[in-house]
Every structure is written in C-alpha cells, then in structure tokens.
Specification:
327 residues, alpha/beta, two-stranded antiparallel ribbon, 10 helices, binds thiamine diphosphate
C-alpha cells in the first residue's frame, strides 16, 4: 500500500475532510437555529458562534473521548463533536423530552458526564474554577486526561478567571484555557474593557505559557491545542490559547448589534474560516467537487432530520418538572 499522505499535523485526508464536515455541520446548525428562533420554535436564548467555528473544531478534534470540555453559551458545536446526536441537541433547543435536560432547562446548561461535557453556569467566568477543579481530580487520580475550558475575552476580566488561572498554575493542572476573543462582550468592544492587546499575556502572571493565534484558522487552533495537550498530559501544567476571532451575529439572536459597523463585519466575514479551509483542502487535493457536494448533502440531511425529529418530539408533562432532582 502506498503511504498515506499526511499534513505536517499528521492528519490523514479522511481526518481533514472530517474536520471540514464538522465546520460545515456546526455552521449549519447555528444558521438553522437562527431561523428557527424567528419562527418561534426555539424555547431558549440562542447565542450563535457563527464565524467562530474553527475554535471548537480545532480544539475538540484534538481531544480523546475521556477528556472534558467546559463549553460556553456559544459552543453548542462542542456538544456535537463530543458525541451528542444532532437530533438530541436540536430537541434540547426545542425544550422537548428528547433533549438532554428533557425540557426542564434553557438550552445552555446541560452537560453529559459520559461524553466529557461539563454543563455551563450563567455567571461569566464561573465555569473556570470548576474546570480547574475537574483538572485537579484528573491529577489526583493520576489519569492523563485533560480539561479544555472555554471563555470569552469579557470573562477574562472577572475575578473567577484570575483565581482559576492562579490555582491551575500553582497546581500544574492538566487544563487548557481557550479564550474565544470575538472582540465584543455583548456591546463592549475589547479596547474598552482591557488595557492590553492580548488575553494570552495574562497567563505569564500565573506561571504558564499563553499564546495568541488566528482563531479562524482551524489548523492553527488544532496545532496549538496539540502542543498544549501534550504538555498537560505529561505533567507540564496549563496553557492559555487565545483565539482571535469575530462573532457575525449579535450577542444573541435578539441583539441587532448596532454598536458595530458594517465595514468591520465585512472585514471579518472576508476571513470566514470555512472558505479558507476549503481552498486549502482543494489545493492539497483532498477535497474534490464530488466529495464537497457529498459533505454538503450529508450536513443538510442531518440538520433537516434533527429539526423534524425535535419538532415532532413530545413536550414534557408538568409533573415531570420535579423528576431527577438531586436532593
Ligand atoms: C458575571 C456576569 N456578568 C454579566 C453577565 C451577562 N453576560 C452574559 S454573556 C455576556 C458577554 C460575554 O462576553 P464574553 O465573555 O467576551 O463572551 P462572548 O459572549 O463574547 O462569547 C454578558 C455581559 C453574566 N452572565 N455574568
């Protein structure tokens, strides 16, 4: 057999196409949600990550099943990549019994222990000390698993962020802090909330490395994550990866984002992570027209099927509201 042609990242053609599939699926999932919100079908706030997909794909692609993610409101794609079926995720958005929380929660706070997904809390930055605690468990149990914790540049101005990084640095925890710097915390532009250019610089104060990278380049994100994971698995402690990106939609689907200019949006849309990666794959000759069409058709079918499933799934009965309580 001829040797498999691999990239310098040691990714085989099938893996590169797989990455492409995830980028397209996560984009399509969010785009459909954006429409469904307007149709009144979604029973939750919707915070799309359109434009930011390369961060989730580049990081989660590098993980093992046993590793944990601590996602944010914009990171539904990490649920899909970690193994939640699109129809289940869509049911969650519709608050149906077939969703993760069986219709008893807004869409954003669910987690799935068996898949390594830790549910998010609403308070900005509050997921980070919890993620550090999870990483401490891995260290104490001598398991070489890693926690990947996501946060926005806005969250990096909260006390919880600094406490989590300090603790992770002191304890050399197996954790990768991934900042999705999309330039705005709701309506606040980054230059109005930070006196430095890079969130990555904050890592140095806590004794570990921080790196600022192009968050719209899925392979750059993957490469940085691989390095951070290798370090974390071998006792080298945490890393902070700041991914520079931009969210195309408002903070949530009800926000028209009047605080930013059309020019700014146009500039960032021209840096769309998906066409850039498509061009790369085509130049590498790992994605021909037929394969592209096949992937697009697969994505469309998956999303259509997920919406149909969720729309036809039963609503929870009122008496089910008190089921599954911990105490
Ligand atoms: C402690 C706290 N303050 C304010 C809010 C309201 N809030 C929710 S998301 C958000 C903006 C978050 O910005 P960022 O951390 O940069 O993440 P992004 O939404 O841009 O991905 C704000 C102000 C909150 N949830 N928690």
């Amino acid at each position: 057999m001829p040797p498999i042609k691999r990239t310098k990242f040691k990714l085989a053609p099938e893996q590169l196409r797989d990455m492409f599939y995830w980028l397209k699926l996560i984009r399509a999932f969010d785009e459909r949600l954006s429409i469904l919100v307007r149709q009144g079908k979604v029973r939750s706030g919707v915070y799309t990550g359109i434009g930011q997909e390369a961060i989730i794909v580049g990081t989660v692609f590098a993980l093992r099943k046993e590793d944990y993610v601590c996602p944010l409101h914009r990171d539904l794609g990490s649920f899909l990549m970690k193994g939640v079926e699109p129809r289940v995720m869509m049911s969650q958005m519709f608050a149906k019994t077939t969703g993760l929380s069986k219709g008893r929660d807004s869409a954003l706070h669910s987690g799935v222990n068996e898949l390594g997904i830790f549910g998010n809390t609403s308070m900005l930055g509050a997921n980070l000390p919890v993620a550090a605690g999870l990483a401490l468990t891995f260290k104490m149990e001598k398991r070489d698993n890693v926690v990947v914790a996501y946060f926005g540049e806005g969250a990096s101005n909260t006390g919880d962020f600094h406490e989590a990084l300090n603790f992770a640095g002191v304890q050399h925890l197996p954790i990768v802090f991934v900042c999705e710097n999309n330039q705005y915390a709701y309506s606040v532009p980054v230059e109005k909330s930070m006196a430095i250019d890079d969130v990555a610089d904050r890592a140095e104060s806590y004794g570990f490395d921080g790196v600022a990278i192009n968050g719209n380049d899925v392979l750059a994100v993957y490469q940085a994550t691989q390095g951070a994971l290798a370090r974390a698995r071998t006792g080298g402690g945490p890393t902070l990866i700041e991914c520079k990106t931009y969210r195309w939609h408002g903070h949530s689907e009800h926000d028209k984002a009047f605080y930013r200019s059309d020019e700014e949006l146009a500039m960032w849309r021209s840096r769309d992570p998906i066409p850039t990666f498509t061009t790369y794959l085509q130049h590498m000759k790992v994605l021909d027209d037929k394969q592209l069409q096949e992937i697009e058709a697969r994505v469309a079918k998956t999303i259509d099927e997920a919406v149909e499933f969720a729309a036809n799934a039963p609503d929870p009965a009122p008496e089910e509201a008190v089921n599954d309580l911990y105490a």
